Design the sequence.
């Protein structure tokens, strides 16, 4: 038997340490069917829930919007850039919810799927990717609510407010992608770290809440700038995305190429970092979780 | 010339034992500093320790596998045998890429699928058909591949009538059938199977064993099979690997491997645990077990016509306990021969206080067949039924055959089949 074999003779070499950037994207492609089936699973189990299940998706943003309008609009009197209050908050909440869902759900991927991951191999990245895609269902429901409210305010306008659709709508798919990838990237970093340091999960739950207040969900960027805090708010990469989102649907908001580019660059860095760390962790996390 | 499809070289896997948690940030940092910045050896990895659980290690890292080397050729069915903790599961996990090796590598030719569990990823809300797709995809099949095999899978599972019912309505038997059916139709060249056959009814188990046989012998695919069931390993495999404390103790044909394993796993008629090593539960601690002959002497070998007495000495750690004793007997094929409990025990009626106690069970002569046996010991309670303590393989003994008027065999000298050999009345 010839002992000298080049690595080409083998289809797969399992070893301890591999290159940091060996991200196995072709493996990922081979398992694309699995991704779709996971999404389908989430979709079907979503439909097979009780009647109230999907309804919650409506109730949560609706009530949040009402409370925000009352607390920040009426009581605190924060301006909404001349937009109908409900619409202003709902656009912010809808986009923020999608981002935070992607973040929080992917940040527990290792913990939630430890039993599957412990029994069978498939590219682990499939799981967070499927979560991000599945979250589109909820996002879609909330978007529907938003559109319904836009139609309502179109027929029954509130005096002193106006809104209009803009050609920024062409950017809509791109904005969704950006939110998904930003949430995914951050989630991947956190899930990789929680396999070792469990206390991080607590940080995520209230950290995401706090982060919302540092971006333009409850106040417009122009208001923050007028108060002299514009630069802090613009540090949050979601600010550029939410402003652009609001501009696309309502025609108001500070949509600049600069802030959007900042968001894009931030997202790409976080995403690459997240995937690298995730891949590094996936190999041995079963031993520690 | 046979070609290896799996080649394992210097494979090792270290596990950290004890607490892995917040306290490790500083250690992690130190390790990072020593290995990555100073390029020194890992200060927390002590090489040369074997994974012997009866000896307390000095470091909190154990080698579950150490410097394993072997090759598997196309079409081989390899049985991996060894005691609990010998490293079987770790080897399977490494082969199936669930976790990665600490050092060394495994080279694989062809697709590899692993079955460490049946029905991984089954979702209770989905129908049988949907779960076939999901489970198949998790195991590495593409959608078109599953569609092609769907009829075959449904047919094999025997749950055709309920294929569009959510699996949460399935009985556990149907669930397992469906799950195994998916796994059995994987098209990979190499299949890694853990003891998943220990499920389902006897008929289905037989079907699974046949299917496994077809896969390795009929279709010429490579199978790695881990089991405690020596008869299943013996029928399915042609090669064997015996693992002991994380190293390969024997590698050869399956017959020789089983022989080696049994010889090395030789029974021990007397066991007395060291302090702190005793198997313990909430209120119970097993101290000493002996197999005695009729003269109350410790003895490993017993003639088939003689009774065998097993004596258990234990300590009760808390006052006011109600319980009774039980034991299970297994033969060297790990077939469960019998189970018995002390159903009239006084301990069930009057509470037992702290102290050391002794209990004996007598297995009559002319009852067991010749061979090697080992037994487990259990402590349980009724109403509600609760097993407080169960320790496997506490002691073992051998039954030696004899010929003569006093035995079942009488004067017949040929091969005598049967798991037990009780003396029965013929009228």
Sequence:
């Amino acid at each position: 038997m010839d002992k000298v074999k080049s690595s080409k003779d083998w289809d797969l070499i399992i070893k301890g340490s591999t290159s940091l950037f060996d991200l196995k994207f072709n493996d990922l492609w081979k398992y694309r069917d699995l991704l779709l089936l996971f999404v389908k699973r989430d979709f079907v189990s979503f439909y097979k829930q009780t009647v109230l299940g999907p309804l919650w998706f409506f109730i949560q943003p609706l009530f949040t919007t009402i409370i925000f309008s009352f607390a920040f609009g009426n009581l605190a009197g924060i301006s909404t850039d001349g937009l109908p209050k409900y619409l202003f908050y709902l656009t912010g909440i809808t986009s923020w919810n999608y981002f935070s869902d992607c973040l929080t759900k992917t940040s527990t991927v290792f913990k939630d799927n430890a039993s599957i991951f412990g029994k069978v191999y498939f590219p682990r990245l499939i799981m967070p990717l499927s979560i991000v895609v599945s979250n589109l269902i909820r996002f879609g429901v909330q978007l529907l609510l938003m559109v319904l409210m836009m139609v309502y305010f179109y027929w029954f306008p509130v005096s002193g407010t106006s809104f209009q659709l803009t050609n920024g709508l062409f950017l809509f798919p791109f904005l969704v992608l950006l939110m998904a990838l930003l949430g995914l990237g951050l989630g991947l970093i956190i899930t990789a770290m929680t396999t070792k340091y469990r206390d991080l999960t607590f940080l995520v739950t209230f950290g995401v809440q706090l982060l919302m207040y540092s971006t333009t969900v409850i106040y417009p960027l122009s208001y923050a700038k007028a108060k002299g805090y514009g630069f802090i708010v613009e540090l949050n990469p979601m600010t550029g995305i939410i402003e652009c989102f609001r501009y696309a649907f309502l025609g108001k908001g500070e949509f600049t190429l600069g802030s959007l580019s900042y968001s894009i660059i931030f997202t790409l860095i976080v995403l690459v970092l997240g995937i690298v760390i995730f891949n590094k962790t996936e190999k041995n996390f079963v031993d520690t979780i | 010339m046979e070609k290896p499809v799996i080649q394992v070289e210097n494979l090792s896997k270290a596990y950290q034992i004890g607490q892995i948690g917040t306290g490790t940030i500083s250690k992690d940092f130190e390790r990072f500093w020593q290995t990555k910045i100073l390029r020194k050896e890992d200060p927390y990895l002590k090489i040369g320790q074997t994974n012997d659980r009866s000896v307390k290690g000095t470091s909190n890292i154990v080698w579950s596998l150490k410097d394993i080397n072997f090759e598997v050729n196309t079409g081989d069915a390899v049985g991996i045998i060894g005691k609990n903790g010998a490293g079987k599961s770790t080897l399977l996990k490494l082969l199936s890429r669930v976790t990665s090796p600490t050092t060394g590598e495994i080279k694989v030719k062809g697709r590899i699928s692993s079955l460490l569990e049946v029905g991984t990823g089954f979702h209770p809300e989905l129908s049988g058909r949907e779960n076939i797709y999901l489970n198949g995809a998790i195991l590495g099949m593409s959608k078109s591949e599953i569609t092609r095999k769907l009829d075959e899978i449904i047919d094999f599972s025997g749950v055709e009538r309920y294929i569009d019912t959510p699996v949460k309505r399935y009985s556990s038997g149907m669930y397992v059938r469906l799950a195994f059916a998916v796994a059995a139709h994987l098209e990979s060249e190499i299949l890694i199977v853990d003891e998943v056959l220990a499920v389902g009814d006897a008929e289905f188990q037989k079907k699974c064993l046949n299917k496994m046989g077809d896969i390795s012998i009929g279709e010429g695919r490579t199978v790695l099979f881990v089991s405690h069931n020596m008869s299943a390993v013996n029928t399915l495999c042609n090669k064997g690997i015996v693992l002991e404390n994380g190293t390969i103790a024997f590698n050869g044909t399956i017959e020789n491997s089983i022989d080696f394993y049994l010889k090395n796993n030789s029974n021990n008629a007397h066991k007395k645990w060291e302090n702190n090593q005793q198997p313990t539960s909430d209120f119970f601690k097993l101290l000493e077990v002996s197999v005695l002959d009729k003269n109350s002497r410790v003895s490993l070998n017993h003639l088939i016509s003689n009774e065998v007495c097993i004596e258990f000495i234990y300590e009760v750690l808390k006052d006011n306990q109600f319980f009774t004793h039980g034991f299970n007997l297994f033969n060297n094929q790990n077939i469960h021969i019998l189970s018995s409990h002390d159903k009239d025990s006084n301990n069930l009626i009057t509470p037992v206080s702290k102290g050391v106690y002794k209990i004996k069970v007598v297995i009559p002569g002319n009852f067991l067949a010749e061979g090697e046996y080992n037994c487990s010991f259990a402590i349980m309670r009724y109403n509600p039924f609760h097993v407080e303590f169960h320790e496997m393989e506490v002691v073992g003994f051998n039954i030696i055959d004899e010929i003569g008027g006093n035995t079942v065999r009488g004067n017949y000298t040929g091969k005598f089949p049967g798991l037990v050999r009780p003396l029965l009345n013929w009228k």
About this structure: Residues 33 and 62 of chain A are 35 Å apart (CA to CA).
